[in-house]
Specification:
heterodimer; A: mainly beta; seven-stranded mixed sheet; 50% strand; B: mainly beta; six-stranded mixed sheet; five-stranded antiparallel sheet; 11 strands; 0% helix
Chain lengths: 113, 109
């Protein structure tokens, strides 16, 4: 069964460092998402990406964040200068489109120290 | 009013009981609806899509009430393994999926 894959599963980084979280969405999907979830809190939308551009983004997704789909398969989230409060689980998701459901990767746990 | 609202719970339910959750949504133009299940420290996983006519999958039944703008999830004969957070998701026809905060369910032996 096709699945969304994310790497790494856990990343520890120092405050102020740049991190890149990687995702490989399901191959025939057209809509891609990043979400984050701080431990014990709700899933928060960061950004959606369609047709090689950002379609929507939340207030959380400020200038420190960027996304790319460099090669037609990978979908990356970059955080330029990490803060302690960026520590969370980051989930990538993809869906075909229209009324279809989203499929999630297993997440990257980011710990900023 | 939040776009998608759920009772956060927790719902503490004895094994074998029936439990129901509701989720209300604010946008009457919402087009598709889903229930996801999330186990602690895991990714959300699709439990079921919610169709206008209602749908059932084993012990799980989902209903949509467009007039009152809510969806429901009924779990019959609950098992210990049903303990999780249940997330309501609504698609308004745009790019974004709108997530509820989740309802925590604890099944007790």
């Amino acid at each position: 069964e096709p699945e969304v894959t994310q790497t790494p599963s856990h990343q520890v980084t120092q405050m102020g460092q740049e991190v890149i979280l990687r995702c490989v969405p399901i191959s025939n999907h057209l809509y891609f998402y990043w979400y984050r979830q701080i431990l014990g809190q709700k899933v928060e939308f960061l950004v959606s990406f369609y047709n090689n551009e950002i379609s929507e983004k939340s207030e959380i997704f400020d200038d420190q964040f960027s996304v790319e789909r460099p090669d037609g398969s990978n979908f990356t989230l970059k955080i330029r200068s990490t803060k302690l409060e960026d520590s969370a689980m980051y989930f990538c998701a993809s869906r075909v489109g229209g009324d279809t459901e989203a499929f999630f990767g297993q997440g990257t746990r980011l710990t900023v120290v | 009013r939040k776009e998608v609202e759920q009772d956060p719970g927790p719902f503490n339910v004895p094994e074998g009981a029936t439990v129901a959750f509701n989720c209300t949504y604010s946008n009457s133009a919402s087009q598709s609806f889903f229930w996801y299940r999330q186990d602690c420290r895991k990714e959300p996983k699709l439990l079921m899509s919610v169709y206008s006519s209602g749908n059932e999958d084993g012990r799980f039944t989902a209903q949509l009430n467009r007039a009152s703008q809510y969806i429901s999830l009924l779990i019959r004969d609950s098992k210990l393994s049903d303990s999780a957070t249940y997330l309501c998701v609504v698609n308004n026809g745009g790019y974004q999926l709108i997530w509820g905060a989740g309802t925590k369910l604890i099944i007790k032996p």
